[in-house]
Recover the amino acids of this structure.
């Protein structure tokens, strides 16, 4: 299921899916032991958010080899759009009727993800596509410029301090498992994230557009010769990646109950670390990396090092780059021409 | 440096001759230019449009602060303009330089080393951190440097903030000693010594960067920027060459940091946020990546606009219906827009170097579109 | 020019009558004024030896277990139909592409192979300073004034810098250290150049916005000695070297037929001249082995003949050994001592041009019909 260059992967690096599942299971058990049942559910929830953002990073990097600095801010904007949609629709407190809640959530996800996907497409069209053949520095600089533009737009509309989001989920709706009280919201978030990831894997692996994306990631010129519409494929990649980041934003607003104009900056940095950790260009790796960052978040909080969380994540990034720049699941990309 | 002045083919105007001479005696011409600029700026502050904003001493103080950003932009230009790497955490090295001086000369640490020695120490310490950060990163693709430096730029202030036992955290270190030279003790009420010191530092930096640019190392930077594989295949050690650019850029920022700590006699983590890195990057891009004079001018103009003109605009609009626009608040939006617009429309910057213009307009020229002539492209031959 | 060409042909034919690779090389060396007289009679040294080199891209095997020797002084050619793995193999030799298996020895030293214990390298960088740090922490608990600890912290930092600097320059001491630890990292392109390998590219890769002279000066990079500190202080040594190297660059440009074009920006040169400039840049590093990747690609017959003559002349004047990738059969058959044929990543024939020309497998795989 690797999105990029799975064909070129040397066979000895490729692992069987069972090995991967086994390793993940062991890690989950270890995490459970380390943080306990209560925090375990929080770790999965936070991890889901970072995983959703990391997916967009890794997809965009996989296809045009650009670090899309604006991606984190697309996530931040997603949180604001969700919050704004809920406010405009007149929701303030928890919705008790499960049917209404389901309808509202479906509408919220569809709308926000659609809007953020379009935002991503517009960014690509305006700021990256004209520079596709320019020196590498150029799109990176526009990317950081776009990031600042997005942050300032959010600041202009919502102000420089955190904005509280309507809590449509009843936070008191919890159930007890293994001595821990777990919110239905947590379960919902993890389920949504996993569902989106599975949908993405199916899309990339099984559909015609997914095939076009993979072939473009592997060799743009060859793909073009085979009749793939490169511009359209890249635009769709941005749409999907940004929509996923938007989903992350919704989840953030629901779970943390606020949005801040520059929250995407850090979230983007963490999600990028997740993507590198998993092997950039590899969607499965990005998802796992996201959950790892979520684990760090929860563990740092639990052991009283929360204000060092950023430093911790940065340390992970540097260590990965030093010892395994291809990431845990990625292919060798070190000093490539 | 080698005396190979480009022979002016047709009209041998005075300007051409000046250019030819300045190309062959770059160090002397840099000194002369900077001396003239240093003398003219305070005088310009006495002339009506400028004198109405601020009294002269306030202007000179602004110029000294602007000098810091000129220095930062010159340093970042080594990394971005000459070597073609993207450093998004440049303020971190600025911070490291400033804190180095705060440790070296303040009541907080109990040390009192002379400012002039600490300038060197600050540069060295910043370069060290540049090496530490660059060594693992520069072996990889260039993009990784951008994100790692972005992270580093955030982490360094966070560390200074969180390690409050050693840095007094958010309160910052105050009472940092001012420099002294012979019998003259610099005082914050008198901006002139700071202004002249900064002018001297910038002059030295300009000469040093010109010399590096025209050397074997400068050619290697250029080669890497143009085609990394071809550079490596011609024997250029791409990793150590890039590392050197990165460390030199960092040391320049370290210099600036020491100066700022001494001038403000105060350091705190929030002076060195991402907005500083971003502002300096915008200065380099606006001034024209790779063009030493252009970057310097760009940084100076941007700084003056940022600190003086925008404030004046706010004041001028105070009574009008446009008063709700706070230009100071939206300056970063402007920078963001400027970065994107510049890369799309005029990637060579407002004051381009001839070479960078050629480079950045490859795609257009091959499509048969004429490259726009640089309106102010005469600074570098 | 035509005399040159005739001369080369004669050498080639002498090699053919010799029949064996070793003798072919010896004949060439004897004809070469630059070769040391004493060695001419002995077996020529093998300058580059590739052993069972394999490069896989996922399921696709681009190059499979190729053994390949380049004797000193010879012109050796590599031919094969499109997609035969020529350029991949070439990139392995130049240090650009890491081989999946096999090794390459150059001037008697193992240069390229799969890395051994490469993960240990960062450990070496960090270990000394970590040890110093631990000692400092230990002392700190005993002494408690903090002075010693901060001193140790500074020492640890300096040790770390020294290690990183040594690693990035890859100094000889560092290389020996790696050898002793049993760590091996495959050579990078610049390591190969330093060892004496020059190359050109199939699709010209000049520094397009630099002048012809600057391009050649970059080529001379490994042969220049001035340090950044020299440049900063503008020392007499630095200035003298700059002046000297500019003259040398001019000479090299003249040697390839680009006299007077020193200050022309590379991208403004005509196509054929760009190829010549790339050649000048490649020989500026004073290589012992020159790898040429389709040097006549995209040229008309007249330009091709000129460039072939130029290559032969350079080889004679500079005492070069040359590996040539070509698809133009006339070029290959005209000047090669030995020809190796690749198809589907495998070596299907190797021998003198005449032998290869007659080999039925080659005819089937590549020529379709005997070459003209």
């Amino acid at each position: 299921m690797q999105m990029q260059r799975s064909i070129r992967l040397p066979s000895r690096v490729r692992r069987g899916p069972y090995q991967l599942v086994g390793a993940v299971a062991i890690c989950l058990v270890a995490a459970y032991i380390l943080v306990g049942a209560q925090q375990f559910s929080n770790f999965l929830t936070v991890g889901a958010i970072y995983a959703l953002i990391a997916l967009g990073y890794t997809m965009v990097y996989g296809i045009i080899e650009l670090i899309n600095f604006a991606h984190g801010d697309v996530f931040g904007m997603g949180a604001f759009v969700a919050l704004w949609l809920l406010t405009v629709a007149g929701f303030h407190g928890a919705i008790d009727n499960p049917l209404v809640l389901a309808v509202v959530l479906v509408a919220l996800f569809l709308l926000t993800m659609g809007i953020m996907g379009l935002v991503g497409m517009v960014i690509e069209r305006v700021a990256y596509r004209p520079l596709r053949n320019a020196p590498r520095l150029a799109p990176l600089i526009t990317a950081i410029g776009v990031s600042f533009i997005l942050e300032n737009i959010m600041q202009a509309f919502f102000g420089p301090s955190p904005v509280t989001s309507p809590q449509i989920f009843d936070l008191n709706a919890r159930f007890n498992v293994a001595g821990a009280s777990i919110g239905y919201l947590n379960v919902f978030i993890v389920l949504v994230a996993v569902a989106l990831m599975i949908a993405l894997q199916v899309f990339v692996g099984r559909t015609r557009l997914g095939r076009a994306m993979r072939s473009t990631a592997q060799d743009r010129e060859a793909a073009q010769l085979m009749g793939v519409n490169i511009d359209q494929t890249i635009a769709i990649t941005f749409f999907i990646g940004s929509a996923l980041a938007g989903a992350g934003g919704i989840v953030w607003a629901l779970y943390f109950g606020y949005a801040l104009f520059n929250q995407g900056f850090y979230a983007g940095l963490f999600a990028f670390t997740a993507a590198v950790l998993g092997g950039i260009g590899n969607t499965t790796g990005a998802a796992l990396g996201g959950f790892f960052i979520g684990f760090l978040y929860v563990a740092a909080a639990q052991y009283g090092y929360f204000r060092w969380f950023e430093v911790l994540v940065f340390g992970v990034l540097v260590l990965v780059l030093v010892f395994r720049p291809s990431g845990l699941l990625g292919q060798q990309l070190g000093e490539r021409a | 440096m080698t005396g190979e002045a480009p022979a002016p083919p047709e009209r041998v105007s005075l300007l051409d001759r000046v250019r030819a001479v300045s190309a062959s005696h770059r160090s002397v011409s840099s000194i002369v230019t900077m001396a003239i600029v240093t003398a003219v700026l305070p005088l310009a502050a006495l002339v009506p449009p400028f004198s109405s904003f601020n009294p002269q001493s306030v202007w000179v103080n602004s110029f000294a602060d602007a000098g810091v950003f000129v220095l930062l932009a010159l340093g970042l230009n080594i990394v971005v303009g000459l070597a073609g790497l993207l450093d998004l955490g440049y303020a971190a090295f600025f911070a490291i330089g400033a804190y180095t001086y705060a440790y070296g000369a303040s009541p907080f640490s109990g040390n009192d080393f002379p400012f002039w020695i600490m300038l060197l120490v600050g540069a060295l310490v910043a370069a060290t951190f540049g090496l530490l950060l660059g060594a693992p990163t520069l072996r990889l693709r260039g993009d990784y440097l951008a994100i790692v430096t972005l992270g580093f730029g955030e982490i360094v202030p966070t560390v200074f903030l969180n390690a409050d036992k050693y840095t007094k955290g958010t309160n910052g270190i105050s009472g940092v000693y001012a420099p002294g030279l012979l019998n003259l003790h610099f005082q914050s009420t008198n901006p002139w010594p700071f202004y002249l010191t900064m002018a001297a530092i910038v002059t030295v930096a300009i000469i040093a960067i010109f010399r590096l640019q025209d050397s074997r190392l400068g050619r290697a930077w250029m080669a890497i920027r143009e085609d990394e594989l071809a550079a490596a295949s011609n024997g250029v050690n791409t990793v150590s060459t890039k590392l050197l650019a990165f460390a030199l850029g960092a040391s320049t920022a370290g210099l600036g940091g020491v100066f700022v700590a001494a001038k403000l006699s105060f350091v705190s983590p929030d002076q060195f946020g991402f907005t500083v890195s971003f502002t300096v990057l915008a200065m380099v891009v606006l001034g024209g990546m790779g063009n030493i004079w252009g970057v310097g001018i760009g940084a100076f103009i941007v700084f003056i606009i940022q600190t003086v003109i925008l404030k004046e605009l706010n004041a001028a609009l105070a009574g009008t219906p446009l008063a709700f626009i706070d230009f100071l608040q939206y300056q970063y939006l402007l920078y963001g827009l400027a970065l994107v617009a510049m890369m799309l429309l005029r990637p060579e910057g407002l004051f381009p170097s001839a070479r960078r213009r050629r480079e950045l307009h490859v795609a257009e020229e091959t499509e048969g579109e004429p490259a726009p002539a640089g309106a102010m492209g005469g600074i570098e031959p | 020019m035509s005399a040159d060409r005739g001369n080369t042909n004669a050498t080639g034919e002498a090699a053919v009558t010799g029949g064996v690779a070793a003798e072919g090389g010896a004949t060439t060396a004897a004809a070469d004024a630059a070769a040391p007289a004493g060695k001419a009679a002995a077996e020529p040294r093998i300058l580059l030896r590739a052993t069972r080199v394999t490069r896989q891209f996922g399921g696709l095997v681009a190059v499979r277990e190729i053994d390949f020797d380049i004797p000193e002084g010879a012109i050796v050619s590599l031919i094969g139909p499109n997609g035969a793995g020529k350029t991949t193999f070439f990139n392995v030799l130049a240090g650009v592409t890491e081989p999946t298996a096999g090794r390459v020895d150059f001037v008697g030293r193992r240069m390229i192979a799969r890395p051994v214990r490469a993960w240990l390298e960062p450990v070496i960088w960090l270990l000394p300073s970590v040890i110093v740090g631990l000692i400092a922490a230990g002392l700190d608990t005993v002494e408690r004034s903090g002075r010693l600890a901060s001193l140790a912290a500074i020492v640890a930092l300096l040790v770390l810098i020294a290690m990183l600097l040594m690693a990035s320059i890859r100094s000889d001491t560092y290389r020996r250290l790696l050898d002793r630890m049993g760590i091996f990292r495959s050579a990078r392109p610049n390591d190969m150049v330093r060892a004496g390998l020059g190359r050109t590219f199939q699709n010209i890769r000049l520094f397009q916005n630099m002048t012809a002279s600057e391009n050649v000066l970059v080529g001379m990079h490994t042969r220049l000695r001035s340090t950044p500190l020299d440049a900063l202080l503008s020392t007499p040594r630095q200035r003298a070297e700059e002046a000297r190297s500019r003259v040398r660059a001019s000479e090299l440009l003249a040697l390839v037929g680009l006299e007077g074009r020193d200050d022309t920006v590379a991208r403004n040169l005509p196509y054929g001249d760009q190829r010549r400039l790339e050649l000048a840049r490649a020989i500026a590093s004073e290589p012992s082995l020159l790898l040429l990747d389709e040097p006549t690609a995209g040229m008309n017959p007249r330009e091709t003949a000129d460039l072939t003559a130029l290559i032969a002349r350079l080889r004679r004047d500079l005492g070069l050994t040359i590996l040539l990738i070509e698809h133009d059969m006339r070029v290959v058959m005209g000047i090669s001592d030995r020809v190796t044929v690749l198809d589907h990543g495998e070596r299907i024939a190797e021998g003198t041009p005449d032998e290869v020309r007659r080999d039925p497998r080659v005819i089937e795989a590549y020529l379709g019909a005997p070459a003209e």
